[in-house]
Every structure is written in structure tokens, then in C-alpha cells.
Design a protein that fits this description.
Organism: Roseateles koreensis
Pfam families: PhaG_MnhG_YufB
Shape: elongated
Order of helices and strands: HHHHH
Protein name: Na+/H+ antiporter subunit G
Transmembrane segments: 12-37, 49-67, 73-94
Radius of gyration: 22 Å
Keywords: Membrane, Transmembrane, Transmembrane helix
Number of helices: 5
Structural class: mainly alpha
Length: 126
């Protein structure tokens, strides 16, 4: 395995760019966690920005393994697992927050079952 400083300059630039992009997205996700005020807004920071940040770092790691003759299977599996599980966990957390009626700045959506029941009750003749 060759040290990273002996790689072709194009690979070095590509790996450094992926690391910087990953770091910027992770930083934006961390700032979003601090700045957003309620649960539903804070849910976007780790699921969107931080997922892309970790993805950028994993792609850089994959590029390093490719340049050194490896397959990078571990990085591919981690990236796949991350991009599949992050949206699913965010969806489950959002549903749990709606179920618990956590406060939100933009208000909670109306309960479709309750809205349908009230519409049926108002449509029936008295």
C-alpha cells in the first residue's frame, strides 16, 4: 500500500474535495441541530445534512481504498446502510412525534380520522 502523499495529484484532489464536502455538510447539520427550535425542525438536520456529510467522508474512504488496490466493500455497505436507514428512522421519529403531539411552530396536521368523522356528523340530517 502506497502512502496517501504518493498518490496521483488528481486522486489527492478528489479525496480532499470529498472530505471537505463531507465536513461542510456535517457542520451544517450540527449548526442546524443548535439553531432549530423544535423537534420536527431538528429532525431535518441529522437526516439530511449529516447523512450527506458522512456519505462524503465514506466516499473519500472508498476512493482511498480503490487507489490502494482494495475493493472498498466495507465502505459501500456502510454507505448503503446509512442511506437506507436514515430516512426510515426519521420517518419513524416524525410519526412518534405526531403521535405524542409534540409542540411545533407550524402546528400539527389535522387528524384525518377526526376530520372525516366530523364531516360525516355534519352531513347527516337532524
Amino acid at each position: 500500500m502506497a502512502p496517501l502523499n504518493e498518490l496521483h495529484w488528481a486522486w489527492q484532489i478528489a479525496i480532499a474535495t470529498l472530505l471537505v464536502i463531507g465536513g461542510v455538510f456535517s457542520l451544517v447539520g450540527a449548526i442546524g441541530m443548535l439553531r432549530f427550535s423544535d423537534f420536527f425542525m431538528r429532525l431535518h438536520a441529522p437526516t439530511k445534512a449529516t447523512t450527506l456529510g458522512v456519505g462524503g467522508v465514506l466516499l473519500a474512504s472508498l476512493a482511498v481504498h480503490w487507489t490502494q488496490g482494495g475493493r472498498g466493500l466495507h465502505e459501500l455497505l456502510i454507505t448503503l446502510f446509512l442511506f437506507v436507514t436514515a430516512p426510515v428512522s426519521a420517518n419513524l421519529l416524525a410519526k412518534a412525534g405526531l403521535h405524542l403531539k409534540l409542540p411545533s411552530q407550524c402546528g400539527l396536521p389535522a387528524d384525518p380520522a377526526a376530520a372525516e368523522a366530523s364531516a360525516k356528523a355534519s352531513a347527516e340530517p337532524r
